């Protein structure tokens, strides 16, 4: 039977230990260090280190830890020259001894003192860069800084923004070929023209600037690009008075670099306004919105582009990681760029030409397009997907947080698989009407991103075969917001979870091999490095980065509390450190004896909360996701004077942006809304916990299992297929497992929504083959046990 493949095949194949795809020099450069966001310019989040592997990862223990202050910690650390470098909050940089965790120096980026707007203080930095003895950062308010890696002293500092348009910078800079590459964000609230800038890493002098949408100012780098872009904005981008009507295209997160081709790849974001009729009344693709753009690394001149969402109007971005690798496709080795952007498709492009190399597969539920046309490279949109001029709202998958967000994917040449943190979440969207409840004024769209749709509010780690464009295995994760991913030559995939676990899985089948209770959620991606012959793994704990405060409802049953301890955790095989005991006190709403319900006033307060983007940090419907305090439990909401002082700026030094524009009346309506939400919190918490318990329990019935199932067993050597033919009589289950290697008769029983069945096989020694299965959302799910050879995940469809 197929399960026997999990016994014979490993013995026959693992000894060969041949990589599934070519391992390039770019992937293995500087194996002991992790100096950049994705480790190298290939952005694979892959390490060639293999001391920690599938055989010994169960022995991984804590080597050292460092306690952090409250604040943004959804970031990826670096390691170079024997030091671990991290950024937290608003560009607060620390350097540690990589072996002991001793703090060596600190640097404060100064954002909280300088910031002129809430946008410049929102969230925090996701990463930094290192090269040749210097650490590079971009503060959230736009300063590019080079620090001496030995001392933390400033080597140079320049300002990146050319005007006062709303912007912020929270992505990691990159350093390639002597240049510091930086971008910025803000395309959700402003038509400001997106651009990417390259600075000389030694002096801070600007080398080139590449604009991602058209405009009057044409830099030397943009002459060719302007010719390409302008014809895709047929009605231009200006109002009659000369002000800018349409723009966006910010590139704030994703950059990759190929030194052989001397090309830099830019992942470009969405447009503003979202509604294309308002942004570009004449239609058009509006390049380079939602595109991958290749430019000459020396000059910034345009080489090619590939647009994932022509005429973008759904917050569709291509700002997720772009992974560079060499793949054998149709028998030929091709230098490729791989991306899983927000829109739910997985793309494999020739990185020299931008050619689409195979039919993109869907990594999640996709309703906005049916497929990608291989001749044109364009999506075949489903009818009615464009909301312009249509009444009401319609359901769209993926929603605006995408099927994949900024959290890094990882690629292993050993397995040939890409490991993607996947979101499964839909939204309701429609044309913006006056009074339609836009999250941000001027978007031209009515959007409800946190809507409870069947099958939504879920997240997965998925292993994806980029050549076959097919899912190889998946693991459903807790909550709706997965952590970033790292993989290694030790055959492991590391990822943090929203439930406060840091997990190592077998890269071939997804089986959990080790976990550590971190107390706090883990969102940022881990790294691994080597010091004096010993391999370490480092990760930073703490929630954050949940798509502008969305994706908090499904995470509510888990402890995402802002008060939870945030730490740097470093592990090795002989670690001797321990964490201090932590006792969690469940939050309770403040006493509010004078509160009396008033639905109209609560509604008015909600509009203040939404219209001033309070949800960006404090969560959808004021359900905190860990990025900032959960205001439903704050005593401040019962004190009018304290509330006003904080909203108007009293806590700016702590990272709370001031909102002086909110009037006294609106402040009181906002406070009343939060008091209302506090009254509702206990019942909502209980309902969320009950729902979580129900989801964990199976409600499958005996007859749900009857019939034939095509199953896939995630064995150590990859997916193995078989057919289960099951009969159910009362609670008694019988059947046969059939595969090329033979058949095995199975017997067992149904209990508590699951079936447990087993049978005997002899391949070549007698072993017991067992299944523990349930049915969820029409899919067979569970585990297959192969005697002494292990237990492996199983999925199946009728």
TrEMBL record:
Residues binding Ca(2+), per UniProt: 270, 315
Residues forming the catalytic site: 315 (proton acceptor)
Entry keyword Oxidoreductase: yes
Cytochrome c domain mapped to chain residues: 600-678
Co-factor(s): heme c; pyrroloquinoline quinone; Ca(2+)
Residues at which heme c binds: 614, 617-618, 656
Metal-binding keyword on record: yes
Cofactor mode of binding and number, as noted: Binds 1 heme c group per subunit. Binds 1 PQQ group per subunit.
Binding positions for pyrroloquinoline quinone per the UniProt entry: 186-187, 250, 342
InterPro entries in the cross-refs: Cyt_c-like_dom, Cyt_c-like_dom_sf, PQQ_b-propeller_rpt, PQQ_MeOH/EtOH_DH, PQQ_rpt_dom, Quinoprotein_ADH-like_sf
Gene Ontology cellular component list: membrane
SUPFAM superfamilies with a match to the protein in the record: Cytochrome c, Quinoprotein alcohol dehydrogenase-like
Keywords tagged on the record: Calcium, Disulfide bond, Heme, Iron, Metal-binding, Oxidoreductase, PQQ, Signal
GO MF annotation list: calcium ion binding; electron transfer activity; heme binding; oxidoreductase activity, acting on CH-OH group of donors
Family per record: Belongs to the bacterial PQQ dehydrogenase family.
NCBIfam families the UniProt entry points to: PQQ_enz_alc_DH (TIGR03075)
Protein name, per record: Dehydrogenase
């Amino acid at each position: 039977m197929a399960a026997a493949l999990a016994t014979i095949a490993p013995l026959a194949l693992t000894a060969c230990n041949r990589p599934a795809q070519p391992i390039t020099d770019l992937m293995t450069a500087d194996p002991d260090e992790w100096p950049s966001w994705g480790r190298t310019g290939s952005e694979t989040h892959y390490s060639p280190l293999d001391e920690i592997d599938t055989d010994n990862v169960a022995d991984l223990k804590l080597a050292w830890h460092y306690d952090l202050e409250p604040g943004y910690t959804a970031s990826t650390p670096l390691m170079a020259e024997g030091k671990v470098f991290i950024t937290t909050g608003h560009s607060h940089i620390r350097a540690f001894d990589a072996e002991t965790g001793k703090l060596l120096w600190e640097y404060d980026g100064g954002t909280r003192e300088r910031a002129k707007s809430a946008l410049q203080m929102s969230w925090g930095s996701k990463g930094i860069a290192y090269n040749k003895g210097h650490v590079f950062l971009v503060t959230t308010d736009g300063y590019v800084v080079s620090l001496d890696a030995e001392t933390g002293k400033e080597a140079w500092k320049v300002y990146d923004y050319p005007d006062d348009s709303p912007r912020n910078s929270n992505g990691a800079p990159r350093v390639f070929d002597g240049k510091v590459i930086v971008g910025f964000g803000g395309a959700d609230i402003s038509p400001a023209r997106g651009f990417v800038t390259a600075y000389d890493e030694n002096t801070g002098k600007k080398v080139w600037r590449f604009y991602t949408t058209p405009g009057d100012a044409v830099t030397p780098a943009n002459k060719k690009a302007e010719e390409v872009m302008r014809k895709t904005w047929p009605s231009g981008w200006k109002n009659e008075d000369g002000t800018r009507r349409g723009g966006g295209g910010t590139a704030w997160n994703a950059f990759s670099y190929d030194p052989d081709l001397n090309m830099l790849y830019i992942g470009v974001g969405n447009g503003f306004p979202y509604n294309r009729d308002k942004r570009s009344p004449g239609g058009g693709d509006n390049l380079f919105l939602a595109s991958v753009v290749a430019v000459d690394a020396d000059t910034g001149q345009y080489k090619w582009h590939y647009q994932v969402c022509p005429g973008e109007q759904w917050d569709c971005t291509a700002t997720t990681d772009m992974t560079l690798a060499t793949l054998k496709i149709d028998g030929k080795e091709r230098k490729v760029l791989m991306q899983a952007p927000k829109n739910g498709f997985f793309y494999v492009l020739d990185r020299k030409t931008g050619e689409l190399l195979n039919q993109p597969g869907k990594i999640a539920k996709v309703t906005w397009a049916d497929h990608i046309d291989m001749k044109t490279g364009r999506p075949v949109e489903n009818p009615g997907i464009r909301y312009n001029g249509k009444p009401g709202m319609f359901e769209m998958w993926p929603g605006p947080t995408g099927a994949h967000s900024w959290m890094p994917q990882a690629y292993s040449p050993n397995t040939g698989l890409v490991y993607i943190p996947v979101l499964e979440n839909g939204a309701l969207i429609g044309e913006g009407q006056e009074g339609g409840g836009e999250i941000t004024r001027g978007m031209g769209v009515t959007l409800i991103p946190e809507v409870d749709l069947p099958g939504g509010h879920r997240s997965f780690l998925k292993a994806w075969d980029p050549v076959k464009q097919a899912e190889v295995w998946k693991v459903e994760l807790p909550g709706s917001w997965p952590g970033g991913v790292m993989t290694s030559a030790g055959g492991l995939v590391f990822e943090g979870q929203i439930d406060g676990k840091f997990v190592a899985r077998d890269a071939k089948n997804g089986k959990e091999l080790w976990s550590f209770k971190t107390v706090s959620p883990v969102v940022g991606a881990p790294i691994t490095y080597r010091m004096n012959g010993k391999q370490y793994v480092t990760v930073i704990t703490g929630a954050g980065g949940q798509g502008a405060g969305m994706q908090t409802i499904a995470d509510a049953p888990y402890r995402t509390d802002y008060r939870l301890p945030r730490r740097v955790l470093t592990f090795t095989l002989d670690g001797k450190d321990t964490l201090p005991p932590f006792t969690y006190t469940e939050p309770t709403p403040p006493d509010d004896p004078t509160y009396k319900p008033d639905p109209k006033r609560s509604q008015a307060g909600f509009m203040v909360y939404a219209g001033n983007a309070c949800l960006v940090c404090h969560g959808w419907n004021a359900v905190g996701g860990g990025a900032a305090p959960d205001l439903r439990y704050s005593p401040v909401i019962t004190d009018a004077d304290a509330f006003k002082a904080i909203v108007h700026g009293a806590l700016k030094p702590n990272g709370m942006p001031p909102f002086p524009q909110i009037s006294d009346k609106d402040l009181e309506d906002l406070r009343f809304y939060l008091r209302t939400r506090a009254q509702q919190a206990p019942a909502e918490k209980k309902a969320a916990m009950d729902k979580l318990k129900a989801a964990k329990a199976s409600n499958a019935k005996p007859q749900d299992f009857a019939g034939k199932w095509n199953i896939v067993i995630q064995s150590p050597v990859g997916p193995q297929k078989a057919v289960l033919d099951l009969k159910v009589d009362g609670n008694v289950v019988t059947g046969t497992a059939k595969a090329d290697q033979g058949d095995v008769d199975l017997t067992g029983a149904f209990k508590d929504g699951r079936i447990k069945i087993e049978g005997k096989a002899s391949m070549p020694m007698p072993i017991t083959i067992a299944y523990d299965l349930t049915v969820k959302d029409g899919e067979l799910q569970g585990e297959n046990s192969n005697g002494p050879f292990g237990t492996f995940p199983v999925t199946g469809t009728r």
